Predict the 3D structure of the following.
Amino acid sequence: MNKGLKSHIIKSLGTGIRGDGRSLEDYREITIEKGVSSTAEGSARVKIGDTEVIVGVKLSIDKPFSDRPDEGIVMVGTELLAMSSPEFESGPPSIWSIEIARVTDRGIRESKSIDVKALCITPGEKVWLVSVDICTLNDDGNILDAASLGALAALQDVRLPKVEDNLVNYKEKTDEKLPLQKLPIGVTVLKVGNEFIVDPTSEEEKMADSRLTITSMEDGHICAMQKGGDAQITAEDVEKMVELSIKKSAELRRLLE
């Protein structure tokens, strides 16, 4: 870590203005484009500043878990493409890619945003398996929030494929949407020095002491949290970070609605 650069960033944050001219609580420009893949049942591309991810959703018929015979299955995976950052390498999933997938998955799962019982075809025998695949196209910070937005946008875009004689016809989509009932929005707050910021650039991420990703619902109910970074955070820090996260989640939710 460049201590001189970190000192400069902390000094700048103390004035309430970041290096790119934003305030501490401002996101970069966000664009969401749905239906970007003709082969996926649902897809979306999300850009937050220069950070860009693409998310695809594939549906297949599978056997349910034995302890949940009448519930469909939702799985989330992340691939950090080497072309999207010099920090990423080809090969097995990294710890960071696993964390992104788990944070996104936990927000969807714990919020009960998808009615998994509605994904049951035949109890104990056949259910819909919903696979959410997140791929990075460019990383300039805040992949966590981009992944969360992209996953929800792609799930909103899903149209179930036609099923004929117990076989899925992926070439023909129906008008039936995925039973998506809620929009759990994940917002990551970083602590740099004594300041709290959202939507960090990759440079700001490297200077952060700690981070907290909070996934919340429209009514402010928290359904998932994930701590990152080496530094400890106090109960007072957590309170401030949660308050900021819930405030910003309302702005992001409007982009999806």
User: Anything to note?
Assistant: The chain has one domain: 3-256.
